[in-house]
């Protein structure tokens, strides 16, 4: 049994934020039906990310398929149908399916779903219990609501790139985006939380609701302590948080340090993440500089932050005296938070990652074994599911329409003849 068994989700979202949301709901047991555009004479059909490669899935014949790794990483445990929302017949079909659904997810531009007769008001008239989640770049209101929203632009607009990257006065300084699409991913996860809360409300009251999720809202929310730093004192003091490279705005030492090079002379680095004064004392003992922990300038974190410019160069010199493995072993033994900086090959070979089952092998229609990142959710009574690989485009059209709507062969033939599916 899974936590969301029996919940039906009609997923009209594409690319990443929406599919990331519905993938998590599918992992938790919901029946997620992904609605994709049928293939046409001037377009390949399907979710855009199916073609966002290379890399592409290698098929049984050793050749690349049309399934991009990007798509595979955001669509496990779902079923796929094709439906042309631009056709009246397709819109009517979606309304039929929405009448049977618990949740409807879409990430079309503001106003598009209303033009199709598939907006919240229209579908609520059919299904008052429906939880309807819209995911856009800037939300359903405000001066930017009609703009297309992309993660990269939102990382810039929402302040993240002003905080990410090396300081402007150092080599390599300047704004940087995060290496993965965090605004999309966080919006997907916030949407998952909101949908589950709205489902709970619908269970109690029989009333659905509209969830209005925006990438920019989420990006602003995830500024976290740095956003609070500015609002609590920075605005008053005229100080705007900026880029600090790998350092932390509120904790010292909490950053990357270069250590002694490896046997081939290659530069090596580790992360030192001292979170409290007790850990700093332990670090100083391991580093052979116990006097630093009793120095009034450094004994307490707030003073270490104020005297960062004095302390950090001292620590940089100490860290270069020993190698990576030596430091990690000594610091871990002393229970001082630290870690290596792994590339992805090292991540997936890591014994902790392997033990925690963070890679799952799927049997795909086009390949016998496909390794994909697994859900991180571990639940003792209702574990996540791993029974459906990312679907082929329209793979389950007949199955879903028969199951949800009782469509027989004649109805399916009629829908195909109309171009609806």
Notable characteristics:
single chain, 421 residues, alpha/beta, Rossmann fold, formyl-coa transferase, domain 3, 2 domains, 6-stranded parallel sheet, 3-stranded antiparallel sheet, 19 helices
Describe the structure.
This protein is an alpha/beta fold and about 425 residues long. The protein folds into two domains: about 10-220 and about 355-420, Rossmann fold (3-Layer(aba) Sandwich), CATH 3.40.50.10540; about 255-340, formyl-coa transferase, domain 3, CATH 3.30.1540. It has 19 helices and 13 strands. It has helices spanning about 15-25, 70, 90-100, 110-115, 120-125, 150-155, 160-165, 180-205, 215-220, 225-235, 275-285, 290-295, 300-305, 310-320, 325-335, 345-350, 350-355, 395-405, 410-420; strands spanning about 10, 30-35, 55-60, 65-70, 80, 105, 130-135, 210-215, 255-260, 270-275, 340, 360-365, 365-375. The chain has a six-stranded parallel beta sheet with strand order 5-2-1-6-7-8, sandwiched between helices. A three-stranded antiparallel beta sheet has the order 9-10-11, covered by helices on one side. It has a two-stranded antiparallel ribbon with strand order 3-4. The model has no long low-confidence stretch (mean pLDDT about 95).
Question: What does the secondary structure layout of this molecule look like, with pairings?
Answer:
Layout: E1 8-12, H1 17-27, E2 31-36, E3 56-58, E4 64-68, H2 69-72, E5 78-82, H3 88-100, E6 103-106, H4 112-115, H5 120-126, E7 131-136, H6 151-157, H7 160-163, H8 182-205, E8 209-214, H9 215-221, H10 224-237, E9 254-259, E10 268-273, H11 277-286, H12 291-294, H13 301-306, H14 308-319, H15 324-333, E11 338-340, H16 344-349, H17 351-355, E12 359-364, E13 367-373, H18 397-405, H19 409-418
Parallel strand pairs: 1-2, 1-6, 2-5, 6-7, 7-8
Antiparallel strand pairs: 3-4, 9-10, 10-11, 12-13
């Amino acid at each position: 049994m899974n936590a969301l068994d029996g919940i039906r989700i009609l997923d009209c979202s594409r690319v990443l934020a929406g599919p990331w949301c519905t993938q998590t709901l599918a992992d938790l047991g919901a029946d997620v039906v992904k609605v994709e555009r049928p293939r046409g004479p001037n377009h390949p059909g399907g979710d855009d990310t199916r073609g966002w490669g290379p890399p592409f899935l290698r098929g049984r014949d050793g050749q690349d398929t049309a399934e991009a790794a990007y798509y595979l990483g955001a669509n496990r445990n779902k079923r796929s149908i094709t439906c042309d929302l631009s056709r009246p017949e397709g819109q009517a079909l979606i309304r039929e399916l929405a009448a049977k659904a618990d949740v409807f997810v879409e990430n079309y531009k503001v106003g598009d779903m209303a033009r199709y007769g598939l907006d919240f008001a229209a579908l609520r008239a059919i299904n008052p219990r429906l939880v309807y989640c819209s995911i856009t770049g800037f939300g359903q209101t405000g001066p930017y609501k009609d703009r297309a929203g992309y993660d990269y632009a939102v990382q810039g607009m929402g302040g993240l790139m002003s905080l990410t990257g090396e300081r402007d006065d150092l080599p390599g300084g300047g704004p940087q985006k995060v290496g993965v699409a965090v605004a999309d991913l966080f919006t997907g996860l916030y949407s998952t939380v909101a949908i589950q809360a709205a489902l709970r409300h619908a269970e109690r009251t029989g009333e659905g609701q509209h969830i209005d999720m925006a990438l920019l809202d989420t990006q602003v929310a995830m500024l976290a302590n740095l956003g609070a730093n500015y609002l609590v004192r920075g605005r008053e003091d005229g100080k705007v948080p900026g880029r600090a490279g790998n350092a932390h705005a509120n904790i010292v030492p909490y950053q990357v340090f270069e250590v002694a090079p490896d046997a081939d002379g290659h530069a090596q680095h580790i992360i030192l993440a001292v979170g409290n004064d007790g850990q700093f004392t332990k670090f100083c003992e391991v580093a052979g500089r116990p006097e630093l922990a009793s120095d009034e300038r450094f004994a307490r974190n707030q003073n270490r932050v104020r005297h960062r410019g004095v302390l950090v160069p001292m620590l940089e010199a100490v860290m270069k005296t020993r190698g990576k493995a030596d430091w990690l072993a000594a610091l871990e033994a002393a229970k001082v938070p630290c870690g290596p900086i792994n590339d992805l090959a090292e991540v997936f070979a890591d014994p902790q990652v392997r033990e925690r089952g963070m890679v799952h092998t799927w049997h795909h229609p086009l390949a016998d074994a496909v390794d994909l990142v697994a859900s991180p959710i571990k639940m003792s009574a209702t574990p996540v599911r791993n029974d459906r690989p990312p679907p082929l485009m329209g793979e389950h059209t007949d199955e879903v329409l028969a199951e949800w709507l009782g469509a027989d062969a004649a109805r399916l033939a009629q829908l195909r003849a109309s171009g609806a599916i």
